[in-house]
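F.,

This is the one I mentioned.
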């Protein structure tokens, strides 16, 4: 039998007018952007879900993992309903966009009312040009959504093992709306810091500094864990924690590699710099642990990995490889110093129970990375990014020192806004439900809060019951059939 003739190509596609593949669509950029978004999503689910569920005490494994899972789902719905337009829509005030839905064909199929032949436009009054990617707006909505989601999940790391889950359910949409969207619009979406030329390549300020400061502030208002939990809080599964950390590290290729909004030279530079800085930071942190504490800590190595990833984020595609190594050395030592030395001597840091040290690993590392970006940003790479017109780091002379000042001011704005808004949100929620779990829930953990436990293991305070723990624990199997001979 002869082979059937090939399917004819639709005339509309031949003419380049297919609705599914319009002439302006860059399929390569679109494919990379969707992959990058998926990688960032995997950092949260399952990455941080696994990491959180493993790095805490056994009795808090379910609650910690569920806080991350809930935040991921809640952010998605809030994002497409109103928060995306507040972050990347039309300006309401210089630091905030107008709320609106990102649903339906108008928003999900194409970019609104901009010439598809123009990549970006520039107003002579602006320091920084705007960009228009050549792919559907749906791609951008989802890409930015997973960034918003991971910010809330990172913040949750400060609140594990004591925050009332009902309060967390309220906190997520409120903080997303009144804190995250302001930082995102101000720095990325066309707000005043964007036009002033503050550089945040992929979220050192918008994501990490804000989650670190927001988490620290919320931890103050929620209150500490039980005293015995603060004194001894061993991870319930170190190997599984490493699996979550590995997903976080590998997913950072999408985190930083996707932010040029194209599969281009800058994207490749960002991915390479990300891994250089993370590896350097991990090694430096481990070396410091060996020198001062005589033992290499696996948890310390993970913290060093994270601080390296965070530090390079604001400059991943803006600096050269040698600068990424310097940033890795500093990200492996400065947060180590604040966590291991300063924290133990500071009354404020001792008073606030930041469960996973998010203040050090994200706020300190994020601010450090933002300032270092102002020092090391290479002029040609800057112009590959948005482009950022006439921007360069301090080491390149000229007006480079001004960029450092801009980076500091941008960081201070994010810090101040998050302290203020997070405080207000916590006080408002406190009027409705308690921020902290009850004493009974704090004593029991997951079983009291969710009615579920992470591990069904005999021996954790149980008495041996052969009907439950024998090989044949199910009565329908354990009882011999009628007429059968029972072996004694």
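My design for it:
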């Amino acid at each position: 039998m002869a082979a059937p003739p090939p399917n004819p190509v639709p005339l509309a596609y031949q003419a380049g007018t297919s609705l599914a593949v319009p002439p302006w669509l860059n399929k390569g950029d679109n494919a990379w952007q969707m992959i990058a978004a998926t990688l960032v999503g995997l950092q949260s689910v399952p990455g941080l879900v696994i990491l959180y569920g493993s790095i805490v005490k056994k009795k808090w494994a379910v609650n910690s993992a569920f806080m991350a899972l809930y935040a991921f789902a809640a952010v998605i719905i809030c994002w497409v309903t109103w928060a995306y337009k507040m972050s990347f829509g039309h300006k309401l005030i210089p630091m905030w966009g107008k709320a609106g839905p990102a649903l339906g064909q108008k928003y999900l199929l194409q970019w609104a009312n901009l010439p598809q032949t123009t990549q970006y436009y520039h107003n002579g009054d602006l320091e920084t040009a705007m960009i228009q990617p050549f792919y559907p707006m749906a791609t951008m909505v989802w890409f930015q959504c997973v960034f918003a989601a991971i910010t809330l999940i990172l913040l949750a790391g400060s609140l594990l093992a004591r925050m009332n889950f009902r309060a967390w359910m309220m906190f997520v949409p409120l903080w997303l709306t009144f804190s995250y969207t302001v930082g995102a619009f101000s720095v990325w979406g066309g707000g005043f810091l964007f036009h002033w030329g503050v550089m945040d390549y992929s979220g050192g300020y918008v994501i990490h500094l804000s989650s670190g400061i927001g988490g620290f502030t919320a931890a103050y208002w929620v209150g500490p864990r039980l005293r015995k939990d603060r004194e001894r809080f061993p991870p319930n599964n170190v190997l599984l924690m490493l699996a979550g950390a590995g997903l976080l590290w590998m997913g950072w290729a999408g985190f930083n590699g996707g932010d040029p909004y194209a599969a281009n030279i800058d994207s490749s530079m960002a991915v390479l710099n990300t891994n250089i800085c993370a590896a350097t930071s991990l090694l430096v942190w481990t070396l410091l642990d060996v020198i001062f504490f005589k033992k290499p800590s696996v948890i310390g190595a993970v913290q060093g990995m994270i601080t390296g990833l965070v530090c390079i984020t604001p400059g991943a595609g803006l600096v050269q490889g040698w600068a990424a190594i310097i940033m890795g050395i500093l990200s492996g030592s400065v947060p180590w110093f604040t966590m291991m030395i300063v924290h133990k001597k500071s009354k404020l840091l001792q008073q606030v129970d930041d469960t996973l040290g998010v203040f050090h690993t994200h706020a300190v590392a994020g601010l450090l990375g933002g300032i270092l970006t102002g020092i090391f940003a290479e002029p040609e790479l800057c112009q590959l990014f948005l482009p950022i017109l006439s921007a360069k780091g301090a080491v390149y002379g000229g007006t480079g020192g001004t960029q450092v000042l801009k980076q500091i001011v941008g960081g201070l704005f994010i810090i101040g806004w998050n302290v203020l808004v997070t405080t207000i949100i916590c006080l408002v929620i406190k009027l409705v439900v308690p921020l902290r779990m009850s004493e009974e829930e704090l004593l029991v953990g997951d079983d009291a809060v969710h009615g579920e436990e992470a591990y069904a293991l005999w021996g954790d305070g149980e008495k041996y019951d052969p009907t439950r723990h024998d090989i044949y624990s199910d009565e329908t199997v354990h009882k011999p059939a009628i007429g059968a001979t029972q072996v004694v």
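The beta strands are 91-93, 96-97.

Talk soon.
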